[in-house]
Amino acid sequence: MRGPGRMETQRVTEYPTSPQPAARSTGGGARTAASVAGRADAAHAPLPDPPGGSGATAPQGAPRRVPAPTNAPVSGAAGHPDPGGGGGHARSTGGDEPVGRSRPEVPGERAGADHDTAPGTAPDTAPGTVPGAAEHPGGDEIAERERRGGDRLRFVGAATRRIARGVDLDETVLGLCRASVPAFTDAILVYLRDPLPVGDERPTGPAVLRLRRTDRLPDHALEAPAASPDLEASDTGEFPLPLLSVSPEGGGGGAAELIEVRGGGPLAEVLRGVRPVFGDASTAREALPELLGPGHDAPVGRRAILAPMRGRRRVIGAAVFLRRPERSAFEPDDLLVAAQLATHTALGVDKAVLYGREAYIADELQRTMLPDELPQPTGVTLASRYLPAAETARVGGDWYDAIPLPGGRVALVVGDVMGHSMTSAAIMGQLRTTAQTLAGLDLPPQEVLHHLDEQAQRLGSDRMATCMYAVYDPVAHRIVVANAGHPPPVMLHRDGRAEVLHVPAGAPIGVGGVDFEAVELPAPAGATLLLYTDGLVESRHRDVWTGIERLREKLTETAGLTRPDTPPPLEPLCDEVLDILGPGDRDDDIALLAARFDGIPPSDVAYWYLDPRAQTARQARRLARRALERWGLEELSDSVELLVSEVVTNAVRYAERPITLRLLRTDVLRCEVGDDVPQLPRLRQARATDEGGRGLYLVNRLARRWGATRLSTGKVVWFEFSMP
């Protein structure tokens, strides 16, 4: 069985076009709708009376006479007026004379026309009549039908173009409503399945239709200059449809919003039939009350059309077109117009639903690939921004990350995989996971980039990416940076000076066979480091270095808005940085990571090297007690000394080199014990007869948090206490 869209398109195209040139599309929706509405209204208006007739009308059933245009010669085509006279199509007489030009009169031809009219000649006609009306009493009706067919064809073309402009579901349905009212109908109701099936999904359960949108021609547009008091403007500026109150006496109350289609009922039968039906059809008379809800009657006669909306595979809804009593009723050919509108809208809804699902998948993929929220490690404040290349390309290969490291340090990562597609996002996710794993091993930045390069080569020969990896130490106030083909970072100093850091560029990740170099730079307290991707500084209108200079100037300008020696707030600073983007600068994804270095003052740090001897545990307890007394934390002494003794005892038992003990006072009290043994301790439940194995059990019960991290030179066991 052929789909309704194919059949209807063939039927519509059989109508001959009007001799008048088709109106050119202006590209504006309102102007196109207005011109289409004017043509539609003219199609339903009566023909004008002949001039000079003093109001007299022709008898019913007689051929209508139209005024003959002045100086308009009669065409050589029998029964067809000249194009300049506003009649039908001009046809050639078979001679060499141009179409539409009158032939010179041949003697005797007029007399012979009373008996046998020769092909290519026009019979004698009275002034003011349509040529050919003597032989064809319905000639003007044919011309009128042709004109209406041309108007319908032009309206369908303009309406389907407007419907096709919609990208999402609401835009598509709105395009149907705006194109139909008032050019084709005075009111429209659009119902869609709830939920809408996506792609090849088969709906389960009973069919439920939800009223998605209504639109109508307001009463004041046809009757009074002021709006009816029962109408209120909606949020979109449209007038609500108090249902089918298309006549002034109509009842109020809105149409049913949710309708369950009864299996085997009249509405289900109409929807299965696919073809639009008039409201006075036997099936529609019972289907419309079921669709509109109890207590609501459709207009009588052919002033209502119920059009099922069939998508690619199934009916996904229905549209109801209504006309007021003062407007002419729908004609049989209007069913084809309604079928075209419903079919194009259904196909647009199908595409919008598929696009919505793809956009949801893209959003979820990008959201899960990026951190939900940044950590707040000690000694540094972080902020970030991510912008996709465009709404139609929501996923990309840009990423950022902040990874806490042992000793209060933090790794700052920004990368950019080539392209902004689902493939780029998938590769980005793998590289980000690899970077997190390598950061957990506490490898130097250049080693991390080396392993990322190997991973990119394993993923494929064309998997290219750039990356900036930096490790900030809040105790030493230093930062170690390694670069793999990424734009250089920019540091905003406390005094408002912005500086582009000189970091060796290196080769992009995925090239293979290259070495990466790391540099150590000072990170003074109050300074702000900005890591970003090239989408922020590069576009088709400017090169990278021009964009970097613009970024540096913007940072200096923003810092000048605050008091001297006071860094600008971090979140507003990120927003100001994004303002350097011009209207045509969004060619690529943008990832931005800003880090404000607060540091940890030396007075809040206690650090010792201890030899692995039997007396080391006692020495560690004494040193920890003195540090707590200096900080005024004596009430934590007992718990801290107990846990320090347990952890140091375990380290002394297996270590061969000096161990380290460090206490950090920030918002918590943190204790770290390091040794040269890479094996991590494991919490286990000691038996009653065991002499050991209870040290980590005590740490787990008394400390706020604890953990162990493997280093390149061994491991660190740490625990934290809340400040009293």
UniProtKB/TrEMBL annotation:
Keywords: ATP-binding, Hydrolase, Kinase, Magnesium, Manganese, Metal-binding, Nucleotide-binding, Phosphoprotein, Protein phosphatase, Transferase. Residues 1-148 are annotated as: Disordered. It is an enzyme of class 3 (hydrolase). It catalyses: O-phospho-L-seryl-[protein] + H2O = L-seryl-[protein] + phosphate. Residues 98-117, 137-148 have a biased composition (Basic and acidic residues). The keyword ATP-binding applies. GO terms for molecular function: ATP binding; kinase activity; metal ion binding; protein serine/threonine phosphatase activity. Primarily acts as an independent SigF regulator that is sensitive to the osmosensory signal, mediating the cross talk of PknD with the SigF regulon. Possesses both phosphatase and kinase activities. The kinase domain functions as a classic anti-sigma factor-like kinase to phosphorylate the anti-anti-sigma factor domain at the canonical regulatory site, and the phosphatase domain antagonizes this activity. This is protein-serine/threonine phosphatase. It comes from Streptomyces taklimakanensis. The lineage of its organism: Bacteria, Bacillati, Actinomycetota, Actinomycetes, Kitasatosporales.
